[in-house]
Amino acid sequence: MRRLGFAVLAMLLPAVAQAQQPDDYQTLKQRVTDIAFDPDSFFGEQGRYFRIATIRYRGDDWAFPVYAIAISNGCVLGRAPGCEARRIARMVRGTEAKPPERPRWRGSALIGRLGKLGPLDRPGLARALDANVDWLEADLDQCAGARAALSQAGEARWIAPELLASKPSDDIGIVLHADTIRVEFAGFLRSAVYDSYIAKGTPTAWADGFAKAIEPCWKPSAAPRPWHAAPGAKPAPSGG
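The chain above was modelled as a monomer; its predicted structure follows.
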């Protein structure tokens, strides 16, 4: 019987040890991206009805989660006269004492800090994110220049000219290890999506400039933090 007990214990030990191993870098990065940097979740369940645009900034080939922004009309905070005309933004990003020299370093530093905490289950990761990311909100109608910066998205070149050229150019553009941005504008039964490195005149360049334009206007948000939503469930409606 004792031998049988030792045999069972020997079989269980590898599984237990494996369960206690921390995530590898790539897995942890993806978990953090999924639960904290999905801007579609920033305004809760009702946000999908009022969403205007989302921005996802990813650093380097690793796609480090640098920041994510969601923009909604004001009705997401409650039905009130004129709420359709208001614009509210929310953002999540890794906490830093001062802006890093390169944006991607914010994302890589966040994953590095979380990786040092050892194995993290879902609740543990949520608590770790509370201590390591900024959850911010901005009223774009009270932010100087924000509405003008938002409207400039319509001036961006959403289709690369080379895609429409009848004869391919001999010029070859080489882009290595670039940060990328995914921009999406959504409306009723229509949407526009652009995903690329940051190139002059494109929606990604607009998004980069827009984020910089509203930087002084961010304040800590009192809304529910999306990474605390139950797994597989939609986030609870936000209260603003």
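DSSP finds eight helices and seven strands in the chain.
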